[in-house]
Amino acid sequence: MNSDREEMSCQEFQAQLPELVGSGEDMSKHPHLQSCENCKALLADLQTIADAAKQLLPVEQPKEDLWDRIDAAIRLEEGALGQEE
Amino acid sequence: MPRSDLAKKNSPDSNTEPAPQAAEPVRVAAVDSKAVDADALARAQAGDHHAFAHLYSLHKRRIYSLCLRMVGNAAEAEDLTQEAFLQLHRKIATFRGDSAFSTWLHRLAINVVLMHLRKKGLALMSLDEAMEPTQSDGPGRSFGAPDLALAGSIDRLALERAVGDLPAGYRLVFVLHDVEGYEHNEIADMLECSIGNSKSQLHKARLKLRDALRTSLERGGQR
Predict the structure, then answer these.
(1) How many domains in chain B?
(2) A77 and B145 in contact by Cβ < 8 A?
(3) pTM over 0.90, yes/no
(4) For chain A (length 85 residues), average pLDDT per consecutive 10?
(5) Does B61 lie at the interface with A, CB-CB under 8 angstroms?
(6) Buried b (16+ CB within 10 A) or exposed e, A58-74
């Protein structure tokens, strides 16, 4: 942590966020966050969104007749292959 | 390996049906399901049509949900689910178990979706858009007052809606990274972009979601 990071503006800090967050670096000790409630709240929100996304389960069901479509397509392919042979 | 294939969903077999709520049945169901899955897989690889139908019933929800989140359209997602299972049928005999079957199927489905989007002419990633933040779309929009924190107040439906409203490129990276658990290097390979581009798109996606969720909260959760 150097003085440049302490004097970083919100704009400079946020411009670096994609790389900082993407690298997995522990951001809690970042000097800019010690004095900037706005950026601290932003980071907390982004983390909340990432955490909530992990809880999104595969809950959606396809229509009941989708298997019939797939089954028909498979049989069609198998029939075509059978004719080739 | 996608986090969803590990312990991400608190279910060791989250690739099949959502886990029951109670702790003990989860483990029992997971063990049973895995045994059935392996048996059905072996039989399906040998050409057993009923076994393949069983694999479909085990994995349809996860594959359809993945397709739906990636394209944001139910009819398209069903077509893509169909194509994914057709490809699975063509290729299942080539599965050698180098990775978990669910991981392999998952990646196959992602490739089907990405190929479909490319055929539609959708540029999956715009380097310029990703690397050059604008005043209306970049970090600059986050300088406002932190008066409405999201912590603890995101409901699943609001988040699903907001993800569905994301621009296609942002949605792809968000779904692949934050929902499905792929790493940036894996996403970069899939989307044929740089790792920095993937990080940038993800960050912008989260910023857009934050705006959408805050707006939703301000409106009292109604839309």
Answers:
(1) 2
(2) no
(3) no
(4) 62 89 83 90 91 88 95 89 70
(5) yes
(6) bebebeeebbebbbeeb
